[in-house]
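Entry 14. Ran structure prediction on the chain below.
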Amino acid sequence: MTGRSIETDVAIIGAGPSGLLLSQLLHLEGISSVIVERTTRERVLGRIRAGVLERGTVEAMEEAGVDARMNEERIDHDGLIIGFDSDSYEIPVLDITGHYVTVYGQTEITLDLVEAAEARGQEIFWNCPDSALAGLTSDAPSVQFKTREGDTITIEAKFVAGCDGFHGICRKHIPADKLREFERTYPFGWLGVLVDEPPISHNVIYKSHPDGFSLASMRSTTRSRYYVQTTPGETVDDWPIERFWEAFRKRMGPLAANLTTGDPIEMSVAPLRSFVAEPMVHGRMFLAGDAAHIVPPTGAKGLNLAFADVRRLTRAFIAWKKGDESRLQAYSGEALDRIWKAERFSWYLTTLLHQFPEHSGFEKRMQRADFDYIVSSEAAQKTIAENYVGLDF
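Output, structure tokens:
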């Protein structure tokens, strides 16, 4: 066992999409970085995640120069279908905003970024779960960890970027008297099924039903991702695939006319919550993505918010390289302003379309009135469309 020290501009904690994109964008600007990831390469590449991309996320892939495969395989959506009971309405997102929403799987984005990093010789330390951060409020923060071989590595950096997710170590280094956390836990989850069958619709469908919410999305023209609302405590074992298809078909109603069922590639239950941590900076450490915020999947904002953070942080590092630290100082406030708006949109769609056990008849009538207003109001449709394609960066 040996020890060695590495000097770099930015030590990036986390090799998910956020950390990988940040390293790629910094590389293009001549800013060095080293990535430390607590899990294995195989596990990172095997994660099943969403794939509905805002226009800004597509732009980020283009800026990073890793858009070739995305542009070959992407599916561009021109609308968003919202259903309530037996009624449905398609919001013409492209006509309203002039922008598409793009479907391209997060798993594919991660693969594209990993391959780009390896092709340029980016240093990534996989499977290093015990990183220790030090000197975050000094001009010389550091990260120390052991490799799989037992070697001790110390990264001496100018900055630390916390891209290590909700359960990562970086946010925990913000002192308790300076950190504020805001959270809303929803009284239900989503059971998701990934199946190699054509999607039932050309656009994503969000559907409210007295039995619970359902969603129809896709990863490609031959691979679909479907969801149903579940109650707390339910697991995949409570949902044999026959029960899932029966519930999904019933909740979708006529919108499931083109449904082709099949054996699932993957099934999982995810709890829903909203979470924001303030501030997103501590000394020379900057948080990005799930390390600082979580949104319920309604609205598909998780990856998109993370990429917006990374683009903003990259611009701040570029300004720093030119001798201007003002954008680093402004990063947290500017990022949070946009994050809270995205949190609002995800919370709004979640509240509109799900069945809440505590709701009385009054709240349920309010949900219906809200849907009817959306159908009748161009202004309401514009609000949803603007948020769906992504607020200006």
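The chain has a mean pLDDT of 96. Will compare against last week's run tomorrow.
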